[in-house]
């Protein structure tokens, strides 16, 4: 007669199954908690970044104490001790100037001087003796005269021939606007104030009215358009000059474009192309476009076959794919993502990466005034080991982070673009970042914000 399983054995198996089920349930809950925690941290990071963009400081520098701690974790202690010993041997620094305290600059010597003489009314002292002039005290003030309008009169002599019964007059000098009222100086004023000082035409209309001259904004708008056509050959020459260089910066920024008849504005873009700060003759070209499509940089950079320094916007990828254009990405963009992860999430991993990038920029400050080949050698000697250590550090730390983590995303941006981010190490003509283009376009971005 067969006997059934022992009751104790059944209880043991049931308990084991219950433990396995509970363990699976706990692991699943832990996974969900970990995922949700990463998601919460990512959302908190986005909120903190938006608040910083809206209300915070634009500075991306680490505090001195924080940076020292981060360097301690990466660099050898001996190097820091040597630096401390050097600091102790130096005389104490002068007291820093109080923050916000203005420093009066000398007035430019090139400005014309208008003298106002002031003399005392008394000619004799109280004791009865006459005063004797022994010198003078000179103080200077800066003054200005508001924009002054004047009328240019072109007086052309007319001559007649009694024999031929003909009349001749001196030809009128060539004008930007034929038979137009504005002279070249006024046209330059309107165009420069609008596009360089970012002062709208309606405000210019108000300013000129205070000087007693009424210039409708519609007339100024027509003048600006005509000047654009007249200046097209100059813009073409500027474009050709920039394209003749082996390294070019490029960037873009959104601007508001009026939509006639709708009472609204729509989003357009201005692209900037410029030479690097390493060349003697620098030039900047601005190109307006209705969209952010990649066709616009392809149109402007047609025929260019050098290195293009940009951010990682996909609109430039077609230029890289077509051959002839080498991509060099902006190290400042990679640093900014890591800095935000450190500043907003308190990531020590990102902070240590930022500290290493600071060493790369320290080398660039020393290499700024060197010739290209000397700059390349200095980069290979001092920057290449730091860049290799940074890449190894980022790769190793990435394995410990969840995909949704802000630090992980910042690391992924750097490692996936590492070849283009370090392109500058092999070419002394290539800058480390795209800050030159960003600085050239920043005034326009701020005026349109």
UniProtKB/TrEMBL annotation:
Transposase TnpC homeodomain domain segment(s): 43-115
UniProt xrefs under Pfam families: DDE_Tnp_IS66, LZ_Tnp_IS66, zf-IS66
Domain Transposase IS66 zinc-finger binding: from-to ranges: 122-164
Transposase IS66 central domain span: 179-446
Region (Disordered): 82-103
Stored InterPro entries: Transposase-related, Transposase_IS66_central, Transposase_TnpC_homeodom, Znf_dom_IS66
Top-level taxonomic group: Bacteria
PANTHER family assigned to the protein according to its UniProt record, in alphabetical order: BLL1576 PROTEIN (PTHR33678)
Protein name (record): IS66 family transposase
